[in-house]
Amino acid sequence: MDYLQIKRVKSLRGNIKISGAKNASLPLIAMTIVAKNSVHIKNLPHVADISTLLKLLSNLGATCEFCEDRVIVDTSTLAQTKATYDIVKTMRASILVLGPILARFGHCEVSLPGGCAIGQRPVDLHLKALEQMGAKINIEAGYIHAVAPNGLKGCEIVFDKITVTGTANIVMAAALASGETTIVNAAREPEVVQLCEILNASGVNIEGIGTAILKISGTNGELVEIKEFSVIPDRIEAGTYLCAGAITRSELTLTHVNAKHLGSVLAKLEEMGSKFTITQDTITIHPSKVIKPIKIVTQEYPAFPTDMQAQFLALATQAKGTSIIEEKLFENRFMHVSELQRMGADISLNGNVATINGGTKLSGTDVMATDLRASSALVLAGLVADGITNVHRIYHLDRGYDALEKKLEAVGANVKRLKE
Ligand code: UD1
User: Fold this and answer.
1) pTM reported for the whole predicted model
2) What's the 122 CA to ligand 1 centre distance in angstroms?
3) How far does residue 315's CA lie from ligand 1's centre (Å)?
4) How far apart are alpha carbons 162 and 175 in whole angstroms?
5) pLDDT given at position 117
6) Cβ–ligand 1 contact at 125 (below 6 Å)
7) Considering the chain, what percentage of its residues have pLDDT values greater than 70?
């Protein structure tokens, strides 16, 4: 198993190229199931989750030609409709194939994803919405069995909670359904917006893109022609490197990034003292010597993302004063706290609220990554900790960060990937 060894350096300097967004790529790859042509996707990140989804599609019979940051997916040969446990257990987002497969073939089986480290993460809202569209769904022996022998029918779906993959799943199902589907309380994340924009450009009329109410006019089972496209930049990867600049008090320039997707993250970093120079596709952080404390509540886009909570928590350990971070989306997303405490951070947890007394000196030690974003929080802490920090179980990190240690090394960090 690999681990990262990090030694403190005085500061970082240079440019970091941001990769394509993992959370945009996943639904966009699943979307190829509703295409009648081979779909050419550019700017995919090299991360394990993408390989996992391509493997799932290949197992189902699709052809995936992956070369550098491009893939050509041909689902015309897709013959199986069962997403098995061995793949779904490694990546919950496998549930994204349910909507498009059911819409195209009239039946689909997907292993139930189960819980994960950051909380329960049920898929009840996906299933309820598909039932409203006419699917019959049974849960048997750990599998979701969904059938829609007469096809899916458009209807009004009101999501009780905003769900990102739930919205994407229903948008893809609605694309091939008959009639109009209205999704009320839809997710507005840029990743959902890109999915809608590409389907819209492919002949599926979608109104309200980027708003909480989406109206999708289905093609009544006719597959769509999807033109070549490029995945949007990863706003969470970008946010993580901005935190690296802030915590090490280093000027860094991110390239291939879209600042418009990072509004709440930039606003919080500004409150903490950083300044920015922004162009159409770059962001330069000019950090302050003194990091100010912060109050953060995680919420759905455009509010502050839960996927940036762990990184800001690491940053808050170096602020001058007390910060408060409230996690509203996932009940168990504070597992990085105990590892940061082992490095000397002064953090107390009360339910879903973390209080961070900043300004403590961190010392390097062996720490364990517990989930994807928790891993990057430990790397950030390692960049400023005295001595050596070894971050173990980085298979979590590899799920979502493209060449993190190479990108950090290129701006002067002392980060090495080693074998246990
Ligand atoms: C997506 C992102 C993940 C991010 C999360 C929240 C991908 C691949 N993953 O995850 O990185 O942290 O959005 O921004 O895009 N819920 C239910 N029932 C459901 C579905 C969700 O109760 O059927 C709850 C969840 O437990 C959670 C909340 O709704 O409390 C939001 O979850 P959701 O937006 O669905 O997260 P994901 O799409 O899994």
Assistant:
1) 0.97
2) 8
3) 24
4) 20
5) 67
6) yes
7) 98
